[in-house]
Amino acid sequence: MSKYIFGVDIGGTTVKMGFFDGEGSLLEKWEIPTRKEEDGSKILPDVAESIKGKMAEKQLAAGDIAGIGVGAPGPIDGDGVVHRAVNLGWGTFSIKETLENLLHIPVMAGNDANVAALGEMWKGGGQGSSDLIVVTLGTGVGGGIIIGGKVLTGAGGAGGEIGHIHVQDSEEQSCGCGNKGCLEQYASATGIKRLALKKLKESDKGSILRNGDVSAKTVFNGVKMKDELAMEVAEEFGKYLGDGLAVIASVINPETIVIGGGVSKAGEVLFDYIKPSYERNVFHANKDVKFALATLGNDAGIYGAAKLISDTMVSDIK
Amino acid sequence: MSKYIFGVDIGGTTVKMGFFDGEGSLLEKWEIPTRKEEDGSKILPDVAESIKGKMAEKQLAAGDIAGIGVGAPGPIDGDGVVHRAVNLGWGTFSIKETLENLLHIPVMAGNDANVAALGEMWKGGGQGSSDLIVVTLGTGVGGGIIIGGKVLTGAGGAGGEIGHIHVQDSEEQSCGCGNKGCLEQYASATGIKRLALKKLKESDKGSILRNGDVSAKTVFNGVKMKDELAMEVAEEFGKYLGDGLAVIASVINPETIVIGGGVSKAGEVLFDYIKPSYERNVFHANKDVKFALATLGNDAGIYGAAKLISDTMVSDIK
């Protein structure tokens, strides 16, 4: 019998949990609340309890489980040590050791955005490629770089911080990270809204954006209705993102670029705005890169977490 | 007895060859001319003859050699297949298979700039780090990205093209690659000279650069003599290179950034010009990256080529 895998995606509000078979089919998923009190010290015990409960329900012993993969916000190095996750109240400690001590099952851990990228490679929009850039356009801009099928973790666990590459010298507002001119300030849902509000203020043009909510969603709805002002906002968004992806691709030489997150619900139209500056500026070997939409939505994290275990099932876990 | 390694660095004019022991000590080095006639078809046979000659001289059999590492210009994938190397007249073929058929000794091959980066990690300015950005400021800007001790080859063998990241939208001159505004246009020896000539033309300032040759070397000599115009050129160079490295580091999260090539002979003063924009724009986790100068000079390629073999000596080569 092939062993089972748990994939755990720890977010600021809920912990998403997935129960997978050894081939990566998601058999069941559920959520528990993220209890952040007492410096987040209840989070991993809660995860352990929930896994124990599921194992009891399925009448499984520790030996039936290949491992537990965990994604969490913050820099997490290759040994499963998190180096401060402010969202959760966590300082520096080993997620791997803590959870292994609670469950006596092998654990692997990684940064949530990187792990979600791995999920999209395995079962989502990046299937079939092993060198990818995955960029997630949500409230912020997250991402993950996959090289030869493995997450680029970086020397200190901070690899793949696509949202904080510098793309604009003249920005006056600060990004959440403290710098000015980060990609996240233009390509996240929040950033697109900011660009739209600025343009509405500066321009006299009529626009359907003047008649209601301004958001990334209404901007791209406007684009589909050929609203001129919405299209200008989309062009600005696409220039920053296309430029940024061109720089990263020139260095990484990926096979596929996957775009996910809430903004990606706008669909293929995004590529119409990203590709022109991407293709103009990228090193020629990368002009024909495949662009794809993410397909796993909020499940990318649990899939990727399970993949951390799947990767190590054959040889590394004893 | 530990086996020996040959490291081969194929350039447009000469092929550099190194004879190493199994620990990576360079025992002997020499050069042969690169014969580019007949689509470069003589190059690998010449390399094979030279290696055979050295083996005869040392009374070594094929079984005494762990392998032959090769660096060559052009995209070379993980299987040792080169995908057009215009400098050498080469089309697409397997360097690995061709040379193995000539010598019956295991061969590994990689892009010359990437391989040189590996050399600097192993025995040069990047020793002790396994996540590095190595950037070579010569006639052009070359580079290599090392992740977990391995070269980032990329999906098509074009990884690490640091010289062709886009850093300037308003450039009117074309780069050798066909794009406009590549880092190479500002940070190579040629690029620095171009910046200096432009500044000399636009400015009325007196400068020692007006009294003789204008080159990257005379610019940085001027900087050391506090020549104001030379310092302005260095600032512009440093801004582009610092900005570019900040973007790459935000994605890679390296431990060390190594600067090599002819321009790096200017020494530590380079960092005074690169660091300000690097530190201003890089994601905070990377602000304390180590900057180092390359130390192997023109031998980086043969060292890195030997490292390709050293990496695979234990397990992969049978």
Molecular structure report:
The structure is a homodimer of 318-residue chains. Chain A is α/β, with parallel strands linked by helices and 318 residues long. Chain A has 2 domains: 4-117 and 299-312, ATPase, nucleotide binding domain (Nucleotidyltransferase, domain 5); 127-295, 2-Layer Sandwich (Nucleotidyltransferase, domain 5), CATH 3.30.420. Chain A has 10 helices and 12 strands. Chain A has helices at residues 37-40, 43-57, 95-103, 112-123, 184-187, 189-202, 216-224, 228-252, 269-281, 300-312, and strands at 4-10, 14-20, 26-33, 65-72, 81-85, 90-94, 107-111, 132-137, 141-147, 150-151, 256-260, 290-293. Chain A has a 5-stranded mixed β-sheet. In chain A, α2 (43-57) packs parallel to α3 (95-103) and α4 packs across α10. The longest helix of chain A is centred in the last third of the chain and has 25 residues, at 228-252. The mean pLDDT of chain A is 94. Chain A binds chain B through residues 75, 78, 129-131, 145, 147-148, 152-162, 164-166, 177-179, 181, 243-244, 246-248, 250-255, 280-286, and chain B through 75, 78, 129-131, 145, 147-148, 152-162, 164-166, 177-179, 181, 243-244, 246-248, 250-255, 280-286.
